[in-house]
Write a structure and sequence with these properties.
This protein is of the alpha+beta class. Helix content is about 30%, strand content about 35%. It has helices at about 15-35, 70-75, and strands at about 1-10, 40-45, 50-60, 80-90. Strands 2-3-1-4 form a 4-stranded antiparallel beta sheet, covered by helices on one side. The chain is elongated and about 55 Å long. It starts with a strand and ends in an 8-residue tail after the last strand.
Length: about 100
């Protein structure tokens, strides 16, 4: 099954450039450490303090619980502001018979 974890950050930090550097460096390190995950960082187009981390991965045995990397990201982001963490599974199209 393919999964997506979305970790959203509403930052209290108004200094976009410094936060951007910290977050992109953090993501680069995570992608090196967790090779079986694809971790991407997105920024809201009009609200500079809103960020979204997307963690894509495949697992055969998974529950509705967040992954270790998702939990690590969510925990690390709490120092920067409000964090929302959700886990999604890909909905596969069913073949018509």
């Amino acid at each position: 099954m393919d999964y997506l974890e979305i970790i959203e950050l509403r930052s209290s930090n108004k200094d976009y450039e410094i936060l951007s550097q910290k977050l992109t460096s953090f993501i680069d390190d995570l992608n090196k450490e967790y090779e079986n995950y694809s971790i991407r960082l997105y920024r809201h187009l009009t609200v500079e303090t809103d960020w979204s981390f997307h963690v894509h991965y495949h697992s055969r045995n998974h529950t509705a619980s967040p992954s270790p990397v998702g939990l690590r990201i969510a925990s690390a982001l709490k120092e920067f502001g409000l964090v929302h963490h959700s886990v999604w599974s890909e909905e596969k199209r069913r073949k018509k018979s």
